[in-house]
Amino acid sequence: MLYYSTNKQVSPVSLREAVLKGLASDKGLFMPEVVKSLSQDSYDQIENLSFQEIACQVAEAFFGEDISEDTLRQIVFDTLSFEVPLVKVKENHIK
């Protein structure tokens, strides 16, 4: 998969090049040309998944064509190896 700059002033690049550069030369962020949708089953099961398992599914949608599932899983679990407290949002909490 190729990754384009959000400023669209440079040619799309590989994941490797996007990661190594960090920012495109036009100062845009790199984004994948296509992001796979999560399955309905993913949404149905989300409350039963850990933060890391959810992150694996999202990472797969962004990087799955370039990085194997096992490698993505290892990256996610190594980098997100902390607890994330869940806080219930109260009704009408958004102003």
Concise overview:
With 95 residues, the chain is mainly alpha-helical.
Order of strands, main sheet, comes to 1-2
Assign a percent range to the helix content: 25-40%
Q: What is the radius of gyration computed over CA atoms, rounded to a whole number of angstroms?
A: 16 Å
Q: H/E element string?
A: EHEHHH
Largest sheet, if any?
Answer: 2 strands, antiparallel
Integer average pLDDT: 92
Beta-strand residue percentage: 5-15%
Q: Which quaternary structure do these chains form?
A: single chain
List the helices and strands and how they pair.
Layout: E1 3-5, H1 15-21, E2 30-32, H2 40-45, H3 51-63, H4 69-79
Antiparallel strand pairs: 1-2
Helix pairs in contact: 3-4
What does this structure look like?
It comes from termite gut metagenome. Residues 3-77 form the Threonine synthase N-terminal domain. With 95 residues, this protein is mostly helical. The protein has 2 domains: 1-34, threonine synthase, domain 1, chain A (Alpha-Beta Complex); 36-84, no CATH class. It is built from 4 helices and 2 strands, in the order E-H-E-H-H-H. The protein has helices spanning 15-21, 40-45, 51-63, 69-79, and strands spanning 3-5, 30-32. Helix 3 crosses helix 4 (69-79).
